[in-house]
Amino acid sequence: MSETSSPEVHPAWLPPSAFRALGSRRVHVEASGPLADTVRAEVARACALFGGNASSPPAAADLILTLAAVPSSGSGDGFLLARRGAATIVIADGPAGLLHGLFEVVRRGEAAFAPDLADERHEPALGLRVLDHWDNVDVHPVMGQVERGYAGGSIFWHHGRLRNDLTRVRDYARLLAATGINAVTVNNVNVHRSETHLLTDRLGEVAAIASTLRPYGIRLHLAINFAAPVILGDLPTADPLDDRVRRWWRETTDRVFATIPDFGGYLVKADSEGQPGPFTYGRTHADGANMLAAALAPHDAPVRWRAFVYNHRQDWRDRSTDRARAAHDHFAPLDGQFSGNVILQVKHGPMDFQTREPVSPVLFAMPRTRVAVELQVTQEYTGQQRHVCYLPPMWSGVLAFRPDGDSGPALAERLSTRTPGGGVLSAVANVGDDPFWTGHPLAQANLYAVGRLAWSPGRDPAAILDEWITLTFPDAPRQALHDLMADSWLTYEQYTAPLGVGFMVRPGHHYGPDVDGYEYTPWGTYHFADRDGIGVDRTTATGTGFTSQYPHPWSERYESPATCPDELLLFFHHVPYTHVLHSGTTVIQHIYDTHFAGAERVADMRARWADLAGTIDPAVHARVTERLAEQLRSAEEWRDQINTYFHRKSGIPDAKGRTIH
């Protein structure tokens, strides 16, 4: 796409029609300040479209948006939605709450003005709700403009420089604010040389983005290079215990805040996949993180330190090495050693955003450390936004996971109550400069939902989907779209990697089937399929011992095939193809059945979408039609390659006599 934004950028979940209920009424905004000005501008725009009054006096108003008489001592994001006399009222804890309250009214539509509207208190469960962009300033020779991006180029950068027109960035901030997101990291966690300079001589570009995001309450974060003092400061070392290095970070951070007073903080990927870190100097992750935390502490800002650290130069013949163990092995012994403004950012699973993984034990293994959960909105291993794959049911399961078993608080509650400011959820973003933001119009649902779940982790993913459909496709048959999308994650799982085995993708770009693609590489992602069985033995008794990283009762449940959930069986156990699942079918028959069923389901999805022609904008319908054709082709390829591979490996025929090549 060209450097300038397309005039035909899709409005996503904020089409003009979403503002009809608000814009056709008399509205009074009683607040001042930049965010209040944004609210006032939104109201004025809506009323200009639908004939309302954007400056109605309070006595005559149908909607009143105001601040609480006593300012909130918290984040100020919360608000009360209520009915008072003949008016609906939003009483916000602070300016950010005023903005969130406005968008709650937009989501409700006419229901927000019902005479019997009950008082509702809205407050985010997690205080920091951040999207991390893997955008490169320069076009990377392998990864391109956006690493693991499937929707075109960056909305921030264009061939090595900041975009001249940041209108689309402002529109993006508006979309995110409407979901509850309140922060964005604007560059890749793999910080290359150009991105390293954003911290110093290119800080003005970062400030311009921050100014564009600010009217919608979105704070800017920056991914930084641990070796920056060497690259930028002409120091001979980046040793976190060296006084010269600590002074460099302190002075550099002070300049960042002098330029961007509401700067959000740093994100760091260190000692992982070739990125520099404290290991170079014989130091720990706590040493490295605490150095940066000390520089940020005077500004009351955090450093988010990613726990994605493992040996990516493994010997495939050494079965004692287990990538799943790595984060816990590295970080759990450091519990209690991190400064208070260090947030350890942990991927939701122990591997790498696979279609199905257990919840990472690191998320509940460090009670004296601030911990954040990291999700991936961009569909690196779940169809790359060429496949319909609605991910919130997966995310909801992670957030609802109870480390203590059937009792005790869910993971989201533990993160919230343990972390000052209400906990942290981060997610790898999936937008690009494509007119449909996410490339696949239906992938916008994942971007919308991650913000809604970050605000309210217990919210039903199906309800979020319906909310998104109602806003985005107001004239389409909602149930038809719901049926097409609601179980699409399970459909994707059916025709790809079975029973939690993971990583059966083509190396490098991670798209399409390749059963042995990573089997003999240094990356440590193996299925160990042989003539007798499949799966990785991660038990304490005979395997890598990964099950021991879980607390009771999960360590016991995962240890035995008799109690391990079917959907994770091959993640934890190497079993015969004839092993009988709890479902009553054998492993090999499950592989055959699900891969046939998944491809059939995609064919049905394609037919259902074709039936929606005429009820969906033609451009949207055409794009999704194109993507569903590719999804069906890919699902059939997955079906045929996986079934053929395991038929040849096991020698066991399909009990239903279907064609296996």
UniProtKB/TrEMBL annotation:
InterPro entries: A-glucoronidase_C_sf, GH, Glyco_hydro_67_C, Glyco_hydro_67_cat
Lineage: Bacteria, Bacillati, Actinomycetota, Actinomycetes, Micromonosporales
TM region(s), chain numbering: none
Residues in Glycosyl hydrolase family 67 catalytic domain copies: 120-437
Glycosyl hydrolase family 67 C-terminal domain sequence ranges: 438-658
SUPFAM superfamilies linked: (Trans)glycosidases
Organism: Actinoplanes subglobosus
One Pfam family here: Glyco_hydro_67M
UniProt protein name: Alpha-glucuronidase
